[in-house]
Design brief:
heterotetramer, A mainly alpha, B mainly alpha, C alpha/beta, D alpha/beta, C: alpha/beta, Rossmann fold, six-stranded mixed sheet, four-stranded antiparallel sheet, globular, D: alpha/beta, 13 helices
Amino acid sequence: MSALLLIEQALNGLQYGVMLFVMAAGLTLVFGVMGLINLAHGSLYMVGAFACAAVAAATGSFWLGLAASLAAAAAAGALVELTVIRRLYARDHLDQVLATFALILVFSEGTRWLFGSFPLYLDIPAGLSGPVTLPGGLDYPLYRLVLIGIGLAIAGGLFWLIGHTRLGIRIRAGEADREMIAALGVDISRLYTAVFALGAALAGLAGALVGALQSVQVGMGEPVLILAFVVIVIGGIGSIKGAFVGALLVGMTDTLGRFLLPAAFGHIMDPSSATSVGAALASMLIYILMAGVLVVRPGGLYGRA
Amino acid sequence: MIREGLLNTLLMLGLLAVPLIAQAMGEPFVITLATKVAILALAGVGLNVALGLGGMVSLGHAAFFGIGGYAMGILAAPVQAYEPLMTWPIEVPGTKSMPVIWAAAMAAGALAALAIGALSLRTAGVYFIMITLAFGQMLFYFAISWPAYGGEDGLSIYVRNGFPGLNTLDPIQFFALAFGLLALALLFAHLLARSRFGLALQGARQNPARVAALGIRPYTLRLTAFVISGAITALAGALFADLNRFVSPAMLSWQTSGEIMVFVILGGVGRLFGPVAGAALFILLEHWLGGVSDYWKLFLGLILLAIVLFARGGMIGALAGRQVAHD
Amino acid sequence: MTDPVLAVHDLSVAFGALKAVDRVSLDLRPGEIHALIGPNGAGKSTLIGLIAGGLRPASGRITFLGRDITRRDTAARARMGLARSFQVSSVAPDFTVLQNVTLAVEGAQGRAYGFFMPALSDRSLTDRAAQHIARVGLLNRVAVPAGDLAHGERRRLEVAMALAQHPKAFLLDEPMAGLGPDGAREFTQILDELRHEAPILLVEHDMDAVFRLADRISVLVYGRVVASGGVAEIRANPEVQRAYLGDETLP
Amino acid sequence: MAGFKTLAAGLCALALATAAQAEPLKVGMITTLSGGGASLGIDTRDGFMLAVKQAGNPDLEVVIEDDQRKPDIAVQLADKMIQSEKVDVLTGIVWSNLAMAVVPAATAQGKFYLSTNAAPSALAGKGCNPNYFSVSYQNDNLHEAAGAYAAKAGISKAFIMAPNYPAGQDSLAGFKRFYEGEVVGEVYTQLGQTDYAGEIAQIRASGADGVFIFLPGGMGISFVKQYADSGVGLPLIGPAFSFEQSIIQAMGDAALGVLNGANWSPDLGNDANQTFVTSFQEEYGRLPSVYASYGYDTANLLLSAMGKADVKDADAFRAALKEADFASVRGDFAFGPTNHPVQDLYVREVVRMGDILTNRIVGTAMEDRGNAYEGECEM
């Protein structure tokens, strides 16, 4: 196989990884700050994609849609936090799992009620469609390069937010000691709403950005949610840095595994069963990666445990 | 408020009475529904050993449920094709005998739980939830893409497996089997909770450091409980596959894990009969709401949400009040 | 002089740059109470954790009953007869007093895997548990959940659990913290009797109790043993006076 | 929606058995009305109910239930319909895996099953049954059409791709059965996969001059959008499932020009089809899909058999079904020896007509095609 193909696959893995990061960042923040496990995070991803598709269809502008996705997901997140999630902070993980599982049902069927059962149309914005030629002669879709850029910018922004802003200081303090931050006079419930809405907005943004490449339909959030779980378990729950490293690892492993494993099996068996067996193994690869990481570090790569 | 014991008795009598009445009235489908309740409750009893007694929030029990189902399919499918199960190194025939299938399903479930538990129990809390979920997904994708046992199409057996002395094709007789196993499992779970092992396990749920300081390893306790839990859930899986005469990767999906957990929590975590109440309510809601609206899951979600937010301790908790310490 | 029951040799552990325990050596001899004192943050609880097994040392050895236990886990050490109490009360809060102590008896018997052996209707377990509960004067509270006990009662429950282990040595981490003067006096009495069961390594801030109970005292400051000896010797040690006791006059 | 539900008499699990009445033919439709694949089931139902409404036959009673695309639910609904509702005929299942779970048991109990879509090879070959009729096709047919036509469309080196599950494996086998060119790349993707950048890179590197895909539902939408954006630009061909009326709107212009093998198209000129397309649009405000056309044909087949025989006389009713004496929207329609259609297979192209995207026939791939499994069936 050519070096060009490998580079293209590595770019694909990177693009997949950074989008997973945007998704996983909110999940890991919400867990780190509030100690909440949120299964409905995937639903916020779906809300973002639907909001973007609906607004883009009505106005003809992808960018308005993107803004709408941020607003809609943040609003949905804040609403859910105020009505449901805040009653769950003091509960054990079990109640959190059940309540957010119920939220998935409500979001999915609610969306189906509003938008119908048919997939929505959402396309890449006109200026970003089509491939560009990279140095070395590789044709690569411009939009995917933009996604990589946006993802890295969000990662940089989050690191800055956590490290250098008042909100970040409160978030880190909140992780360390809830009582202390309350004693400092910070309105903890407003902080929680803000963090939850921030995580929701990131999920919604990821949904809209990826939705332009994929099918915008009910149920699109759950597979991504489970991948995001794998990411933050690998990285260490609560760690933004861990989520970033974990997301890139998962993105690369999955993309390269799907491509290299069938080829590798092709050397030892006939092509048809090689592709089938290789694909079967590739689909399990990230879970094997996760198990491997946990054997060595039960708290994840950057976990506190 | 009703005493919990009385409530449990009423629950079991109700589950027994509904199919008998249905039989008398010629409504075999209601018997099928009651059988489904009994089987899903059995899966919940399995999960409750890990969740209620051991405090292990497993979101991957569909793995064991599905493994039980596939144990049934893999053992029974060769019989209807008149082929041996395996020919190398020795020829082993398949089987249509339920007791053999149950034993195989429980062994397979226990083995899988041993492997998954050994890795997952190195972690705790939210990590454990996510890891069990991920292991479940791993098996799910494997089952879909591995071509040998039907992949996503699953495995069909056309005739339900047999049990000595019973006609399992008769809905009421198959119900009796499922109900009997559920009762046995409940008895087992009851004895387990009151046993030395149960005491240590519940101690480890509340305070693992203290239990270790008393000379008992929490990890080993939990792993043992997880294996028992996996075996019971796998038994339920084998029965469920027999109920449908069909097994597919859908049994391994994470929604199945979520639903098994919903039965347990709906009924009341750590309550012996919680899964029975939970499964009964869930099936009732599914069939009642399903008839009302295409969007019935929306209402199911809202009802679940209301129960978890406002009826802590599940149904049995709401009806019987605070759990008394073990007598 | 008899062989020590428990001995630590050159034990060290660090958390990042902080050397929490720095080349500590000490021992515990049959029949004695060896008190470990020092200011907050001196590393006393860390040392107890290292000996009990919750923490792994970076270097050094721990021997118990003549055997090297450095690499054994908490449960194995406990089964050998090392009983501990925790600085913050550590019991199973939903369990009753009887359940807590029965669990300790079960652990001591090493038979926690009886799947069909009922625990609380087994007189061989509960009778023994009741004896230990009686020893600490909680017999009228057997059916109360541990979470509902008063602070002092929970402290005594912990002692009953430690007793149930038939220990060869006790590791007690501030057993009298928060007890108040009357409670402390009563508890001092209990500990004084306890030494006849097995020697005690006692971490304690209550100096009255320490000077009344201890046969030997070691002083830990910044992770190091700065002085070790008999009660009078430590009272008189100028370095101890300066480093630990400051200007306070000793009683 | 709720209107259909009310047709399901005695739906409540604990309801009394319905009182005896004049015996009409009762048909139970199990299809996917909620969750991810609901659009296919809704089209099936709407097509079927359109024909029922047009016929206005009071002796036909329809019970509709949602299988949620879950095999175990489908099995229980089939049990319920057979045991409690006492239906005579079952129909409506969209997915092969659900069909495999329901059909063998239903036909073993002497019920008729008319397939509106899924027709897996196992039910066409060894597992065939005289009471099982596929009105739609045999699963391989549309892939065969694509394979037979690919060389004519100038694809001499094909890169072929499907999800790694039985229908996907059957699909690639079906394509290769009549394809006369060379297969230069064969890839199985994960079921439910949403990102195809890796596969597109392999296509680019493979030296192929055309691509065959079988990616139903959302998978196809994702692939086609990403493929168009990648600039690879090789001709794309697939079975109709990936380029259906409900799906291509979500693909947008990315789908324009894609070829797909089909046995029906809205622009087929026969009278029955023109009536169907017009009345479907009037009734539901959208263009019908192949699923709607299969549902419509199935209902009309059933109505034609009802006019000839009583369903209680199974042999007579089976013979009446086999005659297929109805005006199919596909034009000529006949059942082959194993109760699967013998029909012309076409290739369609996705085109834009005004605001919407739709399909138009560009050629005939195969004439009077039966299926590859007739030899395995002992009926």
